[in-house]
Write a structure and sequence with these properties.
elongated; 4 helices
Length: about 110
């Protein structure tokens, strides 16, 4: 994992490591994914947002360095939360099939 700059770089030289994105950025990504946007489309929206902030002399934060892997990690967590009903995979599948009879053709 590389060095990530976090905090206000312009007024302070104190740098720290940050491996987590802020809750607001996570919400932004998840909302866009739930609307059906692809990872690529979410990245483009994010780049536009970063460009706007930089033009207005905004402060740098970990969220500016969002990468496709961050988005894919959130996709995985969203899928897990949506489809994983139980720790036991067989039980989880059976529960999901029972709840979604109208879209399951063969089980």
């Amino acid at each position: 994992m590389g060095l990530i700059i976090y905090g206000n770089v312009k007024s302070s030289y104190t740098l720290a490591f940050s491996t987590h994105i802020l809750k607001e950025t996570r919400s932004f990504v998840l909302e866009n994914l739930c609307m059906g946007l692809s990872t690529y489309q979410v990245m483009n929206k994010h780049k536009f947002w970063v460009k706007e902030i930089m033009e207005n002399n905004g402060d740098l934060s970990r969220d500016f360095f969002l990468c496709e892997q961050d988005i894919r990690n959130l996709v995985g967590k969203l899928a897990k939360k949506t489809y994983k009903k139980d720790e036991n995979d067989a039980k989880s599948v059976q529960m999901w099939v029972t709840e979604n009879k109208e879209i399951v053709f063969f089980y």
